[in-house]
Amino acid sequence: MNMEFILGHMNYWLFIILMMIGFYIVVARGNYIKKIVGLNVFQASVFMFYISIGKVEGGTAPIFPIDMNIDPQVIYSNPLPHVLILTAIVVGVATTSLGLALIVRIREEYGTIEEDDILEIDSAAQVSENRKEGASMGGRA
Amino acid sequence: MLHVAGVSGLTIIDQLPMLTIVVPMLAAPLCVLFGNRHIAWLLAFLASVFSFLFATHMLLQVMDGDVLSYHMGGWEPPLGIEYRIDAANAFMLFLISGISTIVLPYARRSVAHEIKKVSHTLFYCCYLLCFTGLLGVVATGDAFNIFVFLEISSLSTYVLIAMGAERDRRALTSAYDYLILGTIGATFFVIGIGFLYMATGTLNLADLSVRMANMEGNRTIQAAFAFIIVGMGLKAAIYPLHLWLPGAYTYAPSVVTTFLAATATKAAIYVLMRFMFSVYQPDFVFELHTLTWIIMPLAILAIFAASLIAIFQTDLKRLLAYSSVAQIGYMMLGIGLASKSSLSATIVHLFNHGITKAVLFMVVGAYVMRAGSSFANNLNGLGKQLPWTSAAFVIGGLSLIGVPGTAGFISKWMLIQSVLEADLWWLAIMLVISSLLAVIYIWKTVEVLYLKEPDVSTLAMKEVPLSMLLPIWILAIACIYFGLNTEWTLSMADVAAEGLLNGGGK
After folding, report:
1. CB distance from A23 to chain B under 8 Å?
2. How far A26 CA sits from the closest chain B CA (Å)?
């Protein structure tokens, strides 16, 4: 692995770093909105990855000349990954909006969007539920 | 034999692979446009019936090992998107659309009870989208198309689960957790597909398998394998990746739980099988190691750990949810053994467990309707008040345990046979022991239903309406029928397993 290899694959290194940052935010942050932000960073890294795949060395933008006289000498970049990732971007937007909508509802019901607080509220509910419904099981469920 | 069709296909029969998915997809927005909850239900039901008829017709066509290839928009594969129906996915389409057709008549009353009227049209719209997504995941022969349909079904599933919030607000946090984990899973899957495209330059599953045939040592496709297995594993709730499942199944509306338990994880397991055995060659060393050293131990762990947790549950829905995790363990075990007989055992178990769990969750939904909750504490003596519903629970429970004469026995028997074929007698003994764990949690429930004295509040409860009872009993009878008449399921599973191992019938 020489310097040229490392620098030549710069976008892939960035993809990995960005992916790890996003993944870490999702796992480590307790705030529900921050988790969604992390998820977005994570997905954005994948968009970057796909766009990098489409790059052909020396290739130009994959647009045919208007008179359709295609010069076979010209190398074009591969447009397919770009098209694919458009779909994934739309999916990402839908996921984000749905996640945020859920957060609004959670905030309405719980009054907080911190994971720790919600876990506390839920486990308190679980304990009282167990005491009430789990009598036959010695108060555990 | 390969049947090819595109938009130019002359008869409606040629268009079936596409129609099966497009009909529910178009019915979904129509539900919202009409804006009437009765029409919405009717549309959902009709779309489901049509899909079921189409799926049945295709199943009959491909039963002898034929393959239907439908070219979306007339574009030739591998460039265009191909819908490739062989025995394996025709069988899955049949299961998913069949369960949906039976669940929907039941859904009408159950949804009316659990969800407020304003949301009904939106509920059926989301239900249809989820249904479309699952059918699409199974039918398509294009790797990226799997991701798109997967997200269609996932996004609508999150909404459906969150609709349980009217009964318990924890549905919201469960839906949120599932959204985070599900999106991570789907993104992992997309990364995997990206790597595959990088290495081969194609997205068509059949074409992928041809181009990858001699790329065993290629690091890119090995990385892709890891990403795809983990991503789909999250969706299929393979043991350590199952954390979203109990919450989602417990707090979702009963109809949603029934539908998801019977179909959603099954579709994900189908995709896993398709990638493991059709796209990747099962004799790749890295895949063999994954199957033997990761998938199999985790499957055994799932069977025991999840069954043990299920024993200690007081909420019937949560109990069955953990039992689902354990049953997914059985299916993964069949995949881990990677022989033709173990694969057919997995496919039979997909089907048999699908109908069994549907019965059980529908009965629990009936209890929720009458008793107000699914806590065992509220169900004392319900066996006498709801005799027909409870009898169906017993049949479903027996099938879950694997008592001879029920569907569950057949698949466990096949699994044990294939385990013995692989000379793993200790594993066969463990499987028998694991069935005893299922006996404990089913017996615990039966005891509550039949042997406990009914409470004062229970005495006034009446049997659920016929529109709910009938679907429950259709599936309960199916549990027994497929336990006695095994010819059809077994031959179907054999053809399907062969199709999977031959790379989708090239």
Report:
1. yes
2. 8
Helix (H, G, I), strand (E, B) or coil at B108: helix
Task: Flag if B378 and A132 touch (Cβ within 8 Å).
Answer: no
CA angle B308, B258, B84 (to 5 degrees): 105
Total count of domains within chain B: 1
ipTM: 0.93
**CA dihedral over B451, B457, B460, B462, signed as positive or negative:** negative
Domain extent at residue B268? 2-501
d(CA B228, CA B239): 16
In the block, residue with structure tokens 């907080």: A112
The answer for residues whose C-beta is within 8 angstroms of residue B75's C-beta and 6 or more apart is: B6, B81
Q: B419 lies in a domain?
A: yes
- pLDDT digit string (tens) for B307-347? 999 998 889 999 999 999 999 999 999 999 988 999 999 99
Please tell me which residue of chain A has the smallest CA distance to B448. Answer: A136
* Confidence category of residue B146, pLDDT binned at 50, 70, 90: very high
Task: Select the highest-mean-pLDDT range: A68-77, B72-81, B89-98, B457-466.
Answer: B89-98
A37, A100 Cβ separation under 8 angstroms: no
Cβ density class B368-386: b for 16+ within 10 Å, e for less: bbbbebbbbbbbbbbbebb
B506 located within any domain: no
Q: Please tell me the predicted confidence (pLDDT) of residue B403.
A: 92
Give the number of A-B residue pairs with CB atoms closer than 8 Å. 94
Contact between residue B17 and residue B70 where contact means Cβ atoms under 8 Å apart: yes
CB-neighbour burial class of residue A127 (10 A; exposed 0-12, middle 13-18, buried 19+):
middle
What is the spatial distance between Cα B66 and Cα A88, in angstroms, rounded to a whole number?
Answer: 33
Under a CB-based contact definition with an 8 Å cutoff, are residues B390 and B383 in contact?
yes
Secondary structure of residue A112 in the 3-state scheme: coil
DSSP string, B208-236: HHHHTTT-TT-HHHHHHHHHHHHHHHHHH
